[in-house]
Amino acid sequence: MSHIIAPSILAADFANLQKEIEMVNQSEADWFHIDVMDGVFVPNISFGMPVISAIKKHVKKTMDVHLMIVDPDRFIADFKKAGADILTVHYEACKHLHRTIQAIKAEGMQAGVSLNPHTPVAVLEDVIQDLDLVLIMSVNPGFGGQSFIENTYKKIKQLKELIEKTGSKAIIEIDGGVNDKNIKKLISAGANALVAGSFIFKSENPTETIKKLKQTL
Ligand code: DX5
Ligand code: ZN
After folding, report:
1. How close is the Cα of 22 to the center of ligand 1, in Å?
2. Is the CB of residue 199 below 6 angstroms from any atom belonging to ligand 1?
């Protein structure tokens, strides 16, 4: 399987959202990455259900929703209604992670868990077989445009080992500071899905930038 490219809408021009979505629809991108921030789990607020529902009307690809919110259980059904296909919660934001994962699947969505840069991969040992996706944060969550944390490569290798050892089907997704300089090394380390925000949307020709990231071997 070739790697998945997931442009992060957080870096798009919110005043021209429909145009930005059409650009991604027409591009070689695979998914839309949607970042939800509550101002509590992370020191920033992005957008919520009404915006996601509006985005969904135009999106022709998988909606990969990344929740950076505390107690995400409260809103699982609402995110399904808003159009999420994949719902990823943070390990650090869940008291009963196993229950949360089951609740996401019960709503018919794919279940993902995200790890902050300081959280070791080993904490997923007992849930890895239930997961469709693991998102390794390669920056501290909360903002786009930050620089990539090099320790990520080590975590990808550890996660790949855990997945292979347990026969898990989980996809490895990397989020934060992804660009044309590090994508190749990330893929060789074992990454299957790459989120990119500023590198795509702040570039001169976002369609071409997506193509370049997608065609990296
Ligand atoms: C950060 C978000 C990322 C962010 C990535 O909290 O989870 O998805 O939008 O943006 P870049 O690619 O600019 O680091
Ligand atoms: Zn994200």
Report:
1. 20
2. yes
| Amino acid code (one letter) for 139 | V
Q: Does residue 217 register a pLDDT over 90?
A: no
- We report the CATH number of the domain holding residue 198 as 3.20.20.70
Beta strands in 11-52 (DSSP E): 31-37
**Structure pTM?**
0.98
Whether ligand 1 lies within 6 angstroms of the CB of 3 is answered as no
Total domains in the fold of the chain: 1
The dihedral over CA atoms of 63, 53, 212, 88, expressed in degrees to the nearest 10, equals: -40
Which ligand is located closest to the Cα atom of residue 7?
1
Whether 8 is in the pocket of ligand 1, judged by its Cβ within 6 Å, is yes
Q: How confident is the model at residue 26 (pLDDT cuts 50, 70, 90)?
A: very high
